[in-house]
Amino acid sequence: MPLPSSPSRPRRSPARLLAVALLAGGALLAPTAPLSTASPAGATPDKPVEVAAPTPDSPVSNRLVPAVRGEAARAAAGPVVSEGVRKPGESRPTAGSTTAARSADTTTITPWSGSLHVVWGAFPTVSSIGAQATHTVNPGISIPSGNPDVVYAPTLVPSGKTCIEVTTFYWQGGNGVGAWDWCAASPGFAAVAWIDSSFLSTYTTSFQGLPAYEVLDVQTNAVTNSWTAYLYNYTTSTWDALFTSADTAKLSETHGGWSMFEVYTEYNSATGEGYYCTETYGTQYHAANLKIKVGSTWSSLTTSNSTVTPPGSLNSTDFGCYGLSFTLQTANSHWQVTH
Q1: Domains contained in the chain, number
Q2: What DSSP designation does 203 have?
């Protein structure tokens, strides 16, 4: 993923600016009523109440998730200047394949130059037409101006056929949940919902003590290859649309997708590790209840329909940080990264 951008702040990192694409493909329905502002009983923005996870067949509303979209998002984000973007299906970096020089001694981190790009997560090995997942959020993360890093965690793509990647991102411009449109002429973020008190009270519940949103990214028309990404609205018990896009050319891409922890980081000589490490100590990232749809059947990710990349144990220093740990709570439908 390339870097996100905030509509409320000026551009501060000219080397890596957000690419924001116009809405492409099928248009979303305009909301006919405002979103409810009521919260589940006992819920607060910082402490949502845990409720049962929705199913892919839970009701779909005619509402849109409140987000920055289209021309307004493009104007707020600035020009397309993102480098190193990899399309679905192209090789992704792993914790062992970066070009940055690092010592074999896991107790030290050798300085590197440029951006270190590393990932870890679950990768479906079958081509699906939908995915659902529970994604935790960390609203307390505050990455200061001048920090060039970005953390995408979790970030979800069902398969090569999809037009939409849904990602939770943290960087100096703010924390958000975004829909990245891979079917646009110039791929980029087409919708960004900021993780504020309204988002937390409407779209999150509690998962293992953390606020978490439910995402559904599904093909809605097999002929036009139209996809819609939804977030579950816990105040109305319905799926609200975040973004829709379509492209028949993607139907030929039969590879699987990903659910992963992804980092772009640069070396901070003052701390001896990546810039993002200081601001993310004490955090957890979860992607849980991972399901994919093949044909008409929804199935959890398992060792038979997905792989974990890279396999085996990881060194925290591969991610430019001290103290990261990587856990599969359930293989392969629930991964956790703890810092």
Answers
A1: 1
A2: H
